[in-house]
Amino acid sequence: MNHSERQPRNRTYLMCPPEHFTVEYAINPWMDTTVPVDAALAVKQWSVLRDTLGDLGHTVHVLDAVPGLPDMVYAANGAFSVDGAVYGARFRFPERAAEADAHAAFYGAGGWRFAGPAHINEGEGDFAYLPAAYGGLVLAGYGFRTDPSAHAEAQEVLGRPVLSLRLVDPAFYHLDTALAALDDRTIAYYPGAFSEGSQRVLAQLFPDAVIADREDAEAFGLNLVSDGRHVILNTEAIAMGDRVRAAGYHPVHVDLSELKRGGGSVKCAVAELRP
């Protein structure tokens, strides 16, 4: 398939600037409290990502950063929306709990149909949506952060089938570190992040998926944002960029080296809003 056949679709995103970003605690294998964060560089890199999305024709809403919430830059974790319905987040770690309130307030002010969760889940960190696959399919990760009970709860809230996928490698603790939607029906993923049963399910449902290797995943190459044609990846993910190019997409590389210190990259910083 050549590039011209991949069609972008205008998206709406939510981001939060890393104005208070630091690595003050370690809640994933990538966080090192002994290495200082360059806050100014983090803001600069984040701004380039925001501008890149805008230059591609997408709408970016900005959520105000809250002092004392250094991980709030990872806006994808705050909720998950499908067709105007929003399933709110409930964080695993108390350090991040108040982020959910800021996101709930954003959706409440915007007139969304918001449902607060009873079960622990970390928003788009562990949920991905494919509107053209099987009539609208939610892929949902569990094993480290999100409680599998949240998957059934999300299905009730969103009215979309939710497929549970078990993550088994602590380096890939959120679904969005191991799997990404490239367009409305196509995914890329790293099989080794998933249990054997989940690997079989993914292979059955997505025979045309772009398969990443461990090196791609460790470079946060699957923590990407795609509009169906343009795939925004971090600058370390060169091999993953080559893979998506071979599949007919157009890779766009952005440097997010500072945000990686907190265990996140492009997708972690971007929540998709689906009115």
From TrEMBL:
MF term (GO), any: hydrolase activity
Highest taxon of source: Bacteria
Name the UniProt record assigns to this protein: N-Dimethylarginine dimethylaminohydrolase
Keywords of the record: Hydrolase
The keyword Hydrolase is annotated on this UniProt entry: yes
